[in-house]
Amino acid sequence: MSTTLHWGIIGPGRIAHKFADALAYCDHNQLVAVASRSQQNADAFASRWQLAHAYDDEAALLANPQVQAVYIATPHNYHYPAAMRALKAGKHVLIEKPACVNAAQFARLCELAEQHDCMLMEAVWSRFLPYVAQAKQWLADKRIGEVQSIQSSIGIAFEHGPEHRINNKALAGGAMLDLGVYALSLSQFMLGQSHTAIQALGKLSADGVDESVMATVQYSGGQLAQFATSIVSQQQNALHVYGSEGTITLEPRFWSGSQVSLQRGDDIQTLTLPWAHNGFEYQIEDMARCILVGKRQSDVVPHRDTLAVLTQMDEVRRQIGLYYGDEFEKV
């Protein structure tokens, strides 16, 4: 393939603009096309980022031979069908988190990626950030001894109305898929183990989405990860990794920050590690490198981790009674 990877975007919303900004920063990556359900929205996005191609139909984008990779930035319930069509068209796929509504859908995408020799990755940008990499290095160096537990909270009191996607069950809204995925994915990343048990409680809104969830996950090594997530309460938004000899803390906004602390007794070391650009550049560069050398999975966000986190979220949703309906849950 060419040393420049040519991208298309499906779903030109707010997060797609952040992705386009990061892509413009990255060498050997170029955004060439966008698709939206609205030609007006596609044209506006294309004008902002000086793109040659703007479509009101994703099929037209997928038929463009110049497009090699696709970033899917639609609401959650559209991730699976859009990714399925992109893989069948032979495009490499980066899907905004959560990759799918459930684990069975992502397992099917993995099969399609293998069949069509395509790269497939969930866009968990937090895993690539410098301060998270520093925390992982401290863990590898046993700076806090043996990890015993992880505790995190991710809650934002959104003021959006009932029509907004985060409050809309028809768009797979709610706290778990939008926010809780960060707590579970980073806990999975820190521990690198499979889970063995989950206990969860949650509160559903009148419209049927999860407003607040608290859960504990036990992993194969015996460690526990406890998290709280909410779209109606403002929380501490920190993640603490507790070890036999100390604590590592990511805060504030542990999923999108730059500060990491290591505490051993009374000694506290705090590092601030800023992003090179807006934070999305690391996942873009990782995916481009993988494709260039023929890899079809990222070492940072491998398929097994995405499947594990989606399986955990499936169980949490089962326990709190949240099902999005056959239309959105089907494979």
From TrEMBL:
Report the superkingdom from the record: Bacteria
Q: Which InterPro entries match?
A: Gfo/Idh/MocA-like_OxRdtase_N (IPR000683), Gfo/Idh/MocA_domain (IPR050984), GFO_IDH_MocA-like_dom (IPR055170), NAD(P)-bd_dom_sf (IPR036291)
Domain GFO/IDH/MocA-like oxidoreductase per the UniProt entry, residue ranges = 133-248
Show the SUPFAM superfamilies listed in the entry. Answer: Glyceraldehyde-3-phosphate dehydrogenase-like, C-terminal domain, NAD(P)-binding Rossmann-fold domains
* Coiled coil, from the record: none
- List each copy of the Gfo/Idh/MocA-like oxidoreductase N-terminal domain by range: 6-122
Family from the record: Belongs to the Gfo/Idh/MocA family.
Question: Mind telling me what this protein is named?
Answer: Gfo/Idh/MocA family protein
Q: Which organism is it from?
A: Pseudobowmanella zhangzhouensis
